[in-house]
Amino acid sequence: MKRRTKRLTYASLACLLLPAFAWYGAFSYRSVCTSCCEEELATDWQIPFTSVTYWQSRSERDTPLSRVVSRYGLAKPGVHTWLFAQGNGNGAMCALGGGHLLTGNDSQEVADFIEAVARYRGAGEARSWLGRLLDPKQSLGAAQVIRLAGVPLDGFGSRDQFESWQTAQGNLFSLYFQQLAGTAASPGAARPPATQPIP
């Protein structure tokens, strides 16, 4: 009788401790694709306090920017290069990677700007902007200058609207490109591609 009672006690403890054990060892994180701008949400179920993974779950989600990339064919479909952004669990309170510096992915303003560049200036120039937005060293500055320029809430409905807006924001973009190149402003300097009117 005593043995049976002990077994029941141990079984009850196991039923209580195993879920807690599994929950504590779960490491959940987010990654950003530096090609298509999609995001990956993942959980690695690990033995607590180790990096030994016994189960994984993955899901991908679109972002405002990834939808523009897909619509205009700005990246090779189905090819992902995931950059770890942030995560927590299994003893880690807040793990950060280079992906957390890519701040333009979820911005509708940034997506509307890239869409207008792709539509009215061409895929090459749009990819140049994507290269900056998906570079951890340049992403913050690129996203910031786009936001500071004040993209219209409904995006750009025509080439004329986009060009007029670019002309009005020419000094801001010119300063950004000069800082990017590490050159001082000069009165006769040619404007960068994003501020030149289309012939």
Structural write-up:
The protein contains 7 helices and 5 strands, in the order H-E-E-E-H-E-E-H-H-H-H-H. A hairpin with a 6-residue loop joins strand 2 and strand 3 (53-61). Helices cover 44% and strands 19% of the residues. It is α+β, with helices and mostly antiparallel strands and 199 residues long. Strands 3-2-1-4-5 form a 5-stranded antiparallel beta sheet. The protein has helices at residues 2-24, 64-71, 108-120, 123-133, 139-149, 159-168, 170-181, and strands at 26-33, 39-46, 53-61, 82-89, 92-96.
Question: TL;DR of this structure?
Answer:
This protein has seven helices and five strands; from the N terminus they run αβββαββααααα. The chain is α+β, with helices and mostly antiparallel strands and about 200 residues long.
Number of helices, where a helix is a run of at least 4 consecutive DSSP H or I residues: 7
Which of globular, elongated, flat, extended, rod-shaped describes the shape? elongated
Biggest sheet overview: 5 strands, antiparallel
- Strand tally: 5
DSSP strand content: 15-25%
Cα Rg:
24 Å
